[in-house]
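Please annotate this fold before class:
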Amino acid sequence: MAPRTVKGGDRTDGDRPVVLYVAGAVFLFILVVVVAGSFTRPDPVTFVPSPVGPRPPVDRFVVDTVTVDARDGSHWVYFDFDKGSAVGGPLAGWDLALNRYHLVVNGGSGYPGAGGAIAIGAPWEAVTEAPASGYATTEGALEDGPATPGLERWYRYGFFSHLLEPKDETYVIRTAEGRYAKLRILSYYCPQATPGCVTLMYGFQGDGSRRLTG
């Protein structure tokens, strides 16, 4: 018996389109990547919380790195650039308030300070002078979940790692007293990858000028 001839678009039951095999292989590869990524968690950069120890006020440009322990989500922790340390509470004077990954300035409706923040699309070394204007202030009271536009999204969230990674961003902060500092956020983790330790690298100008270099 002569073999059957396949004409035009006819296909025997035993044939399988190659495209289905390719699509299946691609789907399987993506599935493997997603599953593997969900079990892979890189080690974040971690810092030990800095001791609370306010220094005397400065009248020059100073650069420092400090890790603020903001792990307790039930209360805010206050930081003062002029004193280079966390301070005892809002009545002690403060420039930044931190609560876990929330970070706000002491400025805006209902706040006693003149604080503000602005994100600068330039490397740390290139930010040598604070802008004269354009600063965002804090919206909402501390007890109501406040936010400082431009500063509240300082991180990227890792979909697979479930870690917060600081953006490669430099911020300029206008302090409660109207002085200026430039700021980078280096990490959100304490040892053992415990979240809530916010490590700040900053350069603070204590002489009242907008110059942000030594």
